[in-house]
Amino acid sequence: MHAVLFGIMFVKVDSHVQPVAVKAAPDVKTDKPLDIIDATAVDNRELEKRKEEKLAIEREKQRQIEAEKKRKAEAKRKKEEQIKKAKEEEARKLELARKKKAEQKKKAEAEKKRKAAEAKKKKEAERKKKAEAEKKRKAAEAKKKKEAAERKRKEAALKKKMEAEARAARAGQAMSKYVPRIQQKVESNWTYPPRGPAGCNPTVRVNLAPDGKVLSATIVKSSGDAYCDSSVEKAFLKASPIPIPLDPDLYSEFKIIDFPFRP
Fold this sequence. Notes:
Elements: H1 2-16, H2 34-188, E1 203-208, E2 214-221, H3 226-238, H4 248-254, E3 256-260
Helix pairs in contact: 1-2, 2-4
């Protein structure tokens, strides 16, 4: 469009330009120099006129370009405004829908809570009733169990007591049987102290293995003679293993013996 407009204006300018007659060189004698000056002035005016028209065309083109920019900018602004309003409207509708949904949810939850509370109350009443019955049943059952446990405990205690008494009786019998043997074997491994055997009667704590091996021998009641006490300790260690019952049930009675050495 700009090119067409420029063409039309150029043609219009050219249509107003009249051809200028070119005269022959003036005869000094006959022609006047003034005619040449007039022709030059006309040409200058035409050139100035063309320049002004060309500038006018350029200004018009620039004006149209600026106008087009403004039009596009305005169109863009309006479009952005429309998009903004559409988004705001959409957001408003979404917010209304959200509030409505939230309100419906709130009502539904309130109704659900009410029903749940009612059901809970009813269930709690039933639970209390069952719990009371269960409590009575458990109390009766616990009483029976306690009575049975107490009966078993007494029976176990009685059995344990009887076994301990029987074991103690057996251990006493075994002890009375094995003490002389132990005394005899220890004496056979005893070296008399300088003062002799008379009055050398300490009590020795002997720690024994299940096979009668002497693990340790320590004086717990001195005879008053250090040489005597030392000789008896050495005698017990030399006599290892000493004779004891091989019955495992009696080992606990012979594991540690406070043996009264009486030569």
